[in-house]
Amino acid sequence: MSKPILLFAQPGSSKVNKTGSWRTMMPVFKHKDCTDCRICVTVCPDACVSGKDKIYNANLDYCKGCGVCAYECPVNDIDMVLEVK
Amino acid sequence: MKKLIEGSMAVAESVKRCRPNVVAAYPITPQTHIVENLAQMVADGELKAEFVNTESEFGAASVVLGASAAGARAYSTTTSQGLLLMAEVLYNIAGMRLPVVITCANRAISAPINIWNDHSDAMVIRDSGIIMLFAEDAQELFDMHPQAFKIAENPDIMLPFMVNMDGFILTHAFESVELSDQKLFDEFLPKFNPALKLDPANPITMGTLAEPKWYMETRYKLHETQQEALPLIQKTAEEFKAKFGRWYGGLIDTYRLDDAEIGFVAMGSLIGTLKEVVDDLRAKGEKVGVLKIRSYRPFPKKEILDVCKGLKQLVVFDKSFSYGWGSILQNEMRNCFYGSKHNPMISGFVVGLGGRDIPPSSIIKAYQQTKGKEILDEFVDVNWELVGVRR
User: Fold this and answer.
1) What is the pLDDT, as a whole number, of residue A17?
2) Would the CB atoms of A7 and B206 count as touching at under 8 Å?
3) Which of B155, B196, B221 sits opposite A8 (nearest CB)?
4) What is the ipTM metric for this complex?
5) Which residue in the set B96, B204, B209 is minimally distant from A10, CB to CB?
6) Nearest CA to CA, how far is A30 from chain B (Å)?
7) Which of B97, B203, B217 has its CB closest to that of A6?
8) Residue B218 in contact with residue A5, Cβ under 8 Å?
9) Cβ <8 Å between B97 and A9
């Protein structure tokens, strides 16, 4: 008899599974009018936006391009652009 | 100790002797008495288990999923709408390879609302990867639960197990049941000791994301394990017989089938009726017998082909239906024989949907109609005037 595959992983599987390839639109943080409100950090469903001192960026290994950060940015300092590789 | 006892109580008495650590369930007719009895046993201190009275069947299935993942022997029970609500979690339990045992008091599905027996609910989750056996009477139910835990928890299997019992016909009827001692159960059923479990000291993630490059292998393994469970179900029934002295068949069972020309096929409590009918017909010189499908998933194709070698015809009595296709058990039986050297004629009758009574006279009538003639997907005892169909 062969052993069943027991579906388990070491803790931190969301870090190991890089999901950035699911994206078509990519956020571009312009770093022009940023007010350090950190709304982009708070609203990112993937928790992949980080930074400080008006310099924030999305970790593109995980960002799925949902655009919530760009939509919510009160000063329109984030653009969503079609990612072409 | 032999006792006149309700089928539900026999299940509760059996589950108690299997020493589950966690029991989580939501009461629903006709399963209610199983939960009530188990809750009473926990309250009285007879059963040392965590009893979780959940807000829904989705919650109950989720509790036993978590409990089993943490290394507990976990048990739940439901029926019909409750099983449908559990369905999403049951697929997860199977995919996560957790040996939860669930008793399903088979009942029809709404609408129209109907609380009586048929096998429609079980068929909803037949493709989930769960092992499914159907019991014939209260004694077989009492005896099936320790076998269920033993098979499910086998390190080579690690799959959930659903014990199917006909609602009301088995849950609410009183039968004389031999309630075997705890000592025998303890000797038969080893402690559950999973290779992997949730443990804060040694954390793991279960049921994590499997991308397209991993997922298909896990699904293949579900099928492979189901196939590997076939000999184990047989072996466990034989081990049970050696220890307890009782036998209901392994994967299948037969009754007066050896020299028969026509075999009746069914699952669950209908087998008892079919045996009566066979005795009556045999007394009149008809060469008939019964093939009982005890294990429905995995489906024992080889064993069925083996015992049907001498048969000219099979007549399937099914309590479920796939609308737009046909009788489920009839079509699975026909599929089973396709491409084999021996091809008996296979007829199929749909009986007892929503608890419609199945008297021996209906079986005999169907038999007389179909003897030597293929009849498919035939609904028995339907009031055609009510349906408005001219026949």
Assistant:
1) 83
2) yes
3) B196
4) 0.71
5) B204
6) 33
7) B97
8) yes
9) no
- Is the CB of residue B76 less than 8 Å from the CB of residue B60? yes
- Chain A residue numbers with beta carbons less than 8 Å from the beta carbon of B230 are none
Inter-chain contact B157–A4, Cβ cutoff 8 Å? yes
What CATH number is associated with residue A66? 3.30.70.20
Q: To which residue do tokens 């650590």 refer?
A: B21
Residue A8: inside a domain, yes or no? Answer: no
Q: Does A21 touch chain B (CB under 8 A)?
A: no
Which two structure tokens, joined as six digits, stand for B108? 């029809």
If one counts the domains in chain A, the total is 1
Domain that holds residue A37: 32-85
pTM to 2 decimal places: 0.92
Name, in order, each residue with C-beta under 8 angstroms of B256's C-beta and a sequence gap of 6 or more.
Answer: B278, B279, B282, B288, B289, B290
Closest among B56, B69, B123 to B95, alpha carbons compared = B69
**Do the domain assignments include residue A53?**
yes
- pLDDT above 60 for B183: yes
For the segment B15-62, what is each residue's pLDDT rounded down to a tens digit? 999 999 999 999 999 999 999 999 999 999 999 999 999 999 999 999
Please report the domains of chain B, with CATH numbers, ordered by start residue: 2-244 (3.40.50.970), 252-387 (3.40.50.920)
